[in-house]
Automatic annotation (TrEMBL), chain A:
Coiled coil ranges: 355-382
CDD domains on file: BAR_SNX4, PX_SNX4
InterPro entries in alphabetical order: AH/BAR_dom_sf, PX_dom, PX_dom_sf, PX_SNX4, SNX4, SNX4_BAR
Record's protein name: Sorting nexin 4
Residue ranges of every copy of the PX domain listed in the record: 47-174
Any one GO CC term of the record: early endosome membrane
Example GO molecular function: phosphatidylinositol-3-phosphate binding
Organism encoding this protein: Hucho hucho (huchen)
Keywords, sorted A to Z: Coiled coil, Protein transport, Transport
Protein family: Belongs to the sorting nexin family.
UniProtKB/TrEMBL annotation, chain B:
Family: Belongs to the sorting nexin family.
Protein's name in the database: Sorting nexin 7
Keyword terms: Coiled coil, Protein transport, Transport
PANTHER family linked: SORTING NEXIN-4 (PTHR45949), SORTING NEXIN-7 (PTHR45949:SF3)
A single MF term (Gene Ontology): cysteine-type endopeptidase activity
Recorded GO CC terms: early endosome; phagophore assembly site
Pfam families named among the record's database cross-references: PX, Vps5
Entry's transmembrane regions: none
Top-rank lineage group of the source organism: Eukaryota
Length: 437, 467
């Protein structure tokens, strides 16, 4: 007769609340991981504190309203010494974050660079508008931007980047600095290469698999997020309609003598039940944001795979070129024409070349072969370097992903548990009130 | 005041309530409900029970401390409605229900009866009871037709819901001190199908029934002039109650709808986690775990919605119908009073007529017929006196009728309020309990999952330490 017992008597399978000790432990474990690699986070606390609206003229000289975010940094040492100085701070807008990211993508093509939060609200929830100025959206973006910076700061390679450091510490002149690196040219060629169509003969199998995985992950997480949004919407509906019970019970209690009190208080609990869904939905949104980050990560994964294909392709092209040059030399030396060439045809028609001409050609070819061999060696080294460094980062990413998503799933379960507990409380209270009717 | 109620209320009823019924009344002593009645000494003369039962309306109305549990050892008639069956004839298809009665009452020849009845028969019974006891509150029947959407009359859920409502209908009558003694009720429970058909054909003809209806309509148009305050109060309450219960009915149906839509989405949600687990290695286990949790919660949600539909929705709907019944009962009471008032006014007019000086017209008529004026006036006086006496007799009857109707209603009003409270309280309680149960089950599902996750991190840290 579980229904008769009060909440205290419900069989608890395990203590599901994270104790503060456990929470601390979790943080410590994460910090340990980070500290193994990073120098920056050990030195600095980074946070994105606030958001503000600014007006200004945009690139086509039109008035626009945009949001800026406050980046605060503070040396870690200062805090541990017992003093808490005021943090250094500066303002950045979303487009500057984008610029930083593009710079990093181009400069470190072997790194799976953390994604930015959405520019615009894509999947619109019940109470969330698609308006970029909506305070809820701005708040979620602020959290996303802070997360982005922390990801960068904890990355073993990226955290040492100078441009990144200046992004955090100097408001003026940063943009100019970025452009001075000349990354824009690289960015353009990179974009072209990304969109070009080419076939690679011998890609590293692992990258091919990774590409498939990132496509699958994108599909499945998109679908999950869509369904989750619909589920949350429906749940909202269920809870909110119970608010009507509150109203009608209250009105009804006015005409009843014996049932009045019970109905009135039951009505209050129905109101509380209806109101509780707002917090629940907020938590669901937070969970969705965690999944979304990994949805956006798939783009970065694909970029790294693409870069590998590119370097591999260039290597293969260089090797192919070398092979054909060597073949040409052989033909020239042995006099056999194995491959069709216009020159060969014309020489057949118009007679053989002179020994001097042949000698000259041979020399050119040998030069080209030497250069070619250098090129192949270079490309090979480049490719191997890339594969090595990329794969290190990919393993790092995989570990991070598994850890983060596992935590996200656990927090999802905790969220459901919390919702169930609230439900038990409300309906137990309502039951008490109905008993008094 | 020793008239049988039948003379006053339904002069056309063929069967009077047998005198030995009063013996049955003593059996009902044990039932707390009837404390008031059985303690009334006038019952001992065995003449009739109705009027004497109602002679202490004041005490009845003030007695609000009735026990809630009417069932128990005092029940001497048990009815079940079950076993719906479909019948197909050349003209129509219809459903019959088995009505099983077990009783120790002596007016029944046997102690057990099994008959089959169709909705029409229940409808007939209700009509008869309301006709015979126009100001008693008869529990509503499920509706004849369901207008909402494409509900098939022969759909399983619909039949089951109807069956439950019919079961409740008969049991409420069985619990009612007056209605359960109705001859029509007895015939309904015990007669074979052909016997019932024959019995139904007896009774007032069509025309006399029409007459009653016309009178009733005329009176309702006329309106009642001096309605007692307490009935006005009841009417106001019924108005408000009707609004509130209709709102609750709508809200509950809306909740069922929303919950069903939530369930539909939830059914698609779990599989997305399963799909994802196919692409993962480390996470596959957890993802499948989450999918499993969601699926189990789906099952629980399905059960919860079912419970809501089966338990709360029908009860609220019943009381929406009850509100309409109450309004009709109040109207009928008003009509009875209006009829009495009309007759009273007619009497007053006649008296004025008689006491007035002989009119010229009367004199003229009299002289035309060759009567002398003195004689004419005397004859006229005599005639009017006769009419006045007749009217007085009628008015006495009507006055009794009004008093009986009022007392019946007041008594039943108290009963009804108690039933209403009991029914609604129990329905809401059951709903709240089910919801607690639902959340507890879902809680267990997620806690089990979480526990299985908590054991793994310790394995991971062990690995870290050893590497």
């Amino acid at each position: 007769m579980m229904a008769d017992s009060g909440p205290e008597e419900i069989a608890v399978i395990g203590n599901t609340d994270l104790t503060s000790a456990e929470l601390e432990n979790n943080i410590k474990n994460t910090m340990v991981e980070i500290e193994k690699w990073t120098s920056l986070l050990r030195k600095m606390e980074i946070s994105v504190g606030e958001a503000e609206k600014r007006t200004g003229k945009n690139s086509v000289n039109m008035q626009e309203i945009y949001t800026v975010y406050l980046i605060e940094t503070r040396p870690v040492d200062a805090v541990t010494e017992g003093l808490i100085p005021a943090p250094d701070s500066l303002w950045r807008r979303y487009s500057e974050f984008e610029l930083l990211r593009n710079y990093l993508l181009v400069t470190y093509p072997f790194v799976v660079v953390a994604p930015l939060p959405e520019k615009r609200a894509e999947i619109v929830w019940h109470k969330l508008s698609a308006d970029n100025m909506d305070p809820d959206f701005v708040e979620r973006r602020r959290v996303g931007l802070e997360n982005f910076l922390l990801r960068l700061a904890s990355h073993p390679v990226l955290c040492n980047d100078k441009i990144f450091y200046i992004f955090l510490t100097e408001e003026k002149g940063w943009k100019e600095m970025v452009y001075e690196t000349g990354f824009q040219a690289k960015a353009d060629s990179r974009l072209k290469a990304m969109n070009a169509a080419f076939r690679v003969k011998n890609p590293d199998k692992r990258f091919t698999e990774l590409k498939h995985y990132s496509d699958e992950l994108q599909t499945v997480v998109s679908q999950l997020l869509r369904v989750q949004a619909r589920v949350a919407d429906r749940l909202y509906g269920v809870y909110k309609v119970h608010g009507n019970y509150g109203r009608v019970f209250s009105e009804w209690s006015a005409i009843e003598k014996e049932m009045g009190d019970g109905l009135q208080s039951a009505g209050h609990h129905m109101d509380a039940y209806a109101a509780s869904v707002d917090d629940i939905l907020e938590e669901e949104e937070h969970y969705a944001d965690q999944l979304k980050e990994y949805l956006f990560y798939t783009e970065a994964l694909r970029a790294v795979c693409r870069k590998h294909e590119l370097t591999q392709f260039e290597l293969e092209m260089a090797a192919q070129d070398l092979t054909s040059k060597k073949q040409q030399k052989e033909e020239l030396v042995t006099g056999t024409v194995r491959t069709f060439s216009l020159k060969g045809m014309t020489s057949k028609l118009f007679g053989q070349e002179t020994a001097e001409q042949r000698e000259a050609k041979l020399q050119v070819l040998e030069q080209q072969i030497e250069e070619g061999e250098e090129a192949v060696k270079e490309k090979n080294t480049e490719s191997n370097e890339f594969v090595k460094t990329a794969w290190v980062d990919i393993e790092r990413f995989k570990d991070q992903k598994d850890r983060d998503l596992k935590e996200a799933l656990i927090s999802y379960a905790i969220m459901q548990i919390s919702r169930c507990k609230k439900g038990i409380q409300v309906w137990t209270n309502a039951k008490e009130c109905f008993n008094k009717m | 005041m020793s008239r049988t109620i039948d003379d006053v209320v339904s002069p056309t009823q063929t069967n009077t309530i047998p005198a030995d019924i009063s013996g049955q009344m003593l059996d009902l002593d044990e039932d707390d409900d009837f404390e008031v009645f059985s303690k009334d000494s006038t019952l001992a003369d065995g003449s009739m029970f109705n009027a004497s039962m109602q002679t202490s309306p004041g005490s009845m109305v003030n007695q609000c401390k009735f026990e809630e549990d009417e069932d128990g050892d005092s029940k001497d008639i048990f009815i079940t409605v079950d076993n719906p069956e479909s019948h197909v004839t050349a003209i129509e298809t219809f459903i019959t229900y088995r009505v099983l009665t077990k009783t120790t009452r002596s007016e029944f020849d046997n102690s057990e009866y099994e008959v089959r009845r169709r909705y029409q028969d229940f409808h007939w019974l209700k009509g008869k009871l309301e006709e015979a006891h126009s100001t008693l509150i008869v529990h509503p029947l499920p509706e004849k037709f369901v207008v909402k959407g494409m509900v098939e009359r022969f759909n399983g859920d619909f039949i089951e819901t109807r069956r439950k409502a019919l079961h409740k209908f008969l049991n409420r009558i069985a619990d009612h001190p007056i209605l359960s003694c109705s001859e029509d009720f007895k015939v309904f429970l015990s007669a074979q199908a052909w016997e019932l058909t024959t019995y139904k054909k007896q009774g007032p003809g069509f025309l006399s029934r029409m007459g009653e209806t016309v009178r009733a309509v005329a009176n309702s148009v006329r309106g009642v002039k001096n309605r007692p305050e307490e009935f006005t109060a009841i009417q106001e309450y019924v108005e408000d109650f009707s609004n509130k219960i209709s709102s609750l009915d709508k809200v509950t149906q809306r909740i069922v709808k929303e919950q069903k839509e939530y369930l539909e989405e939830l059914k698609e949600y779990g599989p997305t986690y399963t799909l994802w687990s196919g692409s993962e290695e480390e996470l596959a286990e957890q993802l499948k775990g989450v999918a499993g949790c969601i699926e189990r919660c789906c099952q629980e949600t399905e059960e919860q919605v079912g419970h809501l539909s089966d338990t709360l929705v029908p009860v609220l709907h019943e009381y929406v119908l009850c509100a309409e019944t109450l309004k009709a009962v109040l109207r009928r009471r008003d009509n009875i009073q209006a009829e009495f008032e009309a007759k009273n006014e007619a009497l007053a007019t006649k008296k004025v007529d008689r006491d007035a000086e002989s009119s010229d017209l009367g004199f003229v008529w009299g002289s035309l017929l060759g009567k002398n004026p003195e004689e004419a006036r005397h004859q006229r006086q005599e005639r009017l006196d006769g009419e006045i006496e007749e009217l007085k007799v009628e008015i006495d009857k009507l006055e009794d009728r009004v008093e009986w109707a009022n007392n019946a209603l007041k008594g039943d009003w108290v009963r009804w309020q108690r039933s209403m409270r009991g029914d609604l309280k129990s329905a809401f309680l059951s709903t709240a309990e089910k919801n607690v149960d639902y959340y507890e089950k879902c809680l267990a599902v997620w806690e089990t999952f979480l526990l299985s996750q908590r054991t793994e991190p310790s394995e991971e840290t062990d690995r870290d330490n050893t590497s």
